[in-house]
Amino acid sequence: MTTGTTRTTDATPAMDPLPVTDATRWWLPRAELDRLVALLRADGRTVVGPAFEDGVVVYREIGSAAELPAGVTDEQRPGRYRARVSTDDAHTFGFAASPTSWKRWTFPPSVELGVARREGDQLRFETPTREVPPVAFLGARACDLAAIAIQDRVLLGGPVADADYRARRSGTLTIGVDCATPSGTCFCTSMGTGPEVVTGHDLALTELDDGFVVRVGTTTGRDLVDRLALSSADASQVEAARAVPDRARAAITRQVDTNGLSERLIANPEHPRWAEVAERCLACTSCTMVCPTCFCTSVSQVSDLDATSATSTREWDSCFTLGFGAVAGGNFRTRRQDRYRQWLTHKFGTWVEQFGSMGCVGCGRCVTWCPVGIDIRDELAAIAGPPPAPAIGTSLPIAAAHPGEYVVATVGSVTPETPDTWTLSLHDVDAAIRAGQPGQFMMVALPGFSAAPISISRYRPDGIDLTIRAAGPATTALTRLRPGSQLGLRGPLGRGWPVELADDRDVLIVAGGLGLPPLRPLIERVLADRGRYRTVRLVIGARTPDDLVLRPDIERWQARTDLDIGVTVDRAGSDWTGPVGVVTQLFDRTAIDPVRTIAYVCGPERMMQAASRTLAGMGMLPDRIYVSMERHMECGVGLCGHCQMGRFFVCRDGPVFSRAELGDTFDLEGI
Amino acid sequence: MDANETLRREVGATWFGVGLPADALDRLAALGHLRDVEPGTVLLTEGTPTPELVLLLHGRARVAEREPGREELTLMTVEAGDIVGWSVLLAPMPATATVTAIEASRVAAFPGAALRAQLAVDPVLSAAIHRQALDAVARRLLATRQQLMDMYRPGGPRHGGAA
User: Are A239 and A277 within one domain?
Assistant: First the structure.
């Protein structure tokens, strides 16, 4: 790890410091603590550590050891926090978890993502080059180091790494402190994260009355010890230090039974306790704001008054907010109990499969800072009882999402489909986008508007088509673009239709409403290589004949003899001579070979549920039925949390899933 | 092949007929007759006594209701293999909608009085016919529910919602 320099998001990440195995214990006299702070600052680091402000211990930049909260202790219980200055105890780290967590520096509450500029019809998307000064964390507890490790896995360990987080973490030096004073809300011993600092530190301190026993965790830490010219700790100091975490461990009396907890929790999606706890929960988001691992964010747009530029800013958000799971026309988690379930089942359940551990470190912040004193230890014990068979789907390989940056494309033509829906044919489209797969989607941006996830409705050699319904500000603005206008594209994103699984099979494609455009690239792929497949049946449903989109394509498909196509509408006048009724009636009495058929279904969720139930009733196995899910999407790469659906991020792991992968979550309300 | 055998064969090839025991199908076929109808032919009239149970063999028919001052509303269409006039089994229940062929169609028609008389003495045929009729009515009930739920209401940007 380098020191004394600034890092940028464009810089090559610095080499991680080498972990070292060193049994030597060093001694840092209390009076010398300030030398450590000064050395870190002399290296150009911002030193962040605890300080006592406004009645609480917070983590903030400190200039010297004198600003550390010597003598401060705290009392924490569900919904209660009291800190006080002790006159007979001068320990520097004699408190438990602070309402602040270190993610405030590694994953700040607000980060500028970029600026979109408009000059006439020309657009430019700029990604700022941020300078991230190196930071030293002084006084991180073991639970907090575990939280940083978890966020490392979330934000750096997936198919897409968060650039801002990577830059900040590459400049982080960490000095941990063994916990000596756990609070009444701590349960790190249950989560296996404390109280002793074991990993994730450059240096680790154990506080005794007159100083600190120091352990080295990395070569960077060794370098600090050398430069401080510390002497070895004597045997009595080492022995006393060993006893500190042991006493802390013994003081933590409330436990969470984590044995099989994920499975037990996921197996109880309909437990009455969800509704009961929702009666107490205020959905205030306090728990998620103080949580050191929660990472959900939203992007806001701020435009200049002359609308020539708009800045995108990523801000902390919470799955407890009503709008977090909302899309226009619906909200996937309207009930508070849905949002509480989402948080708890993610934290202790689906997080495991996504990131390799639970998302909780047992720091107790969410318990302390809940204004109504909801204690997740109680909720877990009440909800996660003895398990029935877990209702989860099959395992899913994570798609290799390619986020890219926003690139500009030009509108070639705008074709009206219905009174509120248009198809934009885009030219000058980046080759990587044109090489996308059927079923993938784009984040589509205009300055001043939220980016919208739009499925690609056609791949052309020179561009792509997007079919967009004008139902909100962003989509309305997009549909008002004229030939020659520019827009921003990011993608292609997500996992598309598994066309390869259709080889030598009967293919059934079911489209409802605007579910047809995301299926058109699949249909065209199948028809372009028709000989690879057996029977191909396409059924299309819409509200009324006027709501049918892609009509020229439908007419062309109807003229083919190698495609069995049916089009039905829910309501029609006397001039419509085609079928009237729901889309399932076009195939529920036909002979389908359930073993030989693969089905691709796309449309509003209610329609996909009806279609997949009908297909299941005809004997089709769930791993042969594919659906494309709709959720609130912002980042498109599984980092903002909006689109989480059970153990999946729909934008990254989907949007196309088999019914087997979705398992029971597909039919559960509020997921 | 006589008309009765033709009727039996054609009915037996439909969803409705496949669900009947062979001997029951024989007895049903003996009650009915085949009819080819032109587009526009009214098969049932809403509010009038239902004369016969009609099984559509080919073509398509519109099931519609009329309300004074409002254009006739097509509730659904029936396709080959489906039945109309199920109310004949609940006589004297009148037809609940007007059914009109909208394509050149071929139907098998079973007069209501004769059908009811046979079902009264033929428990095997009765059970099979009622089961198939219940299946058809249940399917329509489910479809109606889904239509009431406005199944195609946009759910999001990619499927037509707002952003």
Answer: no
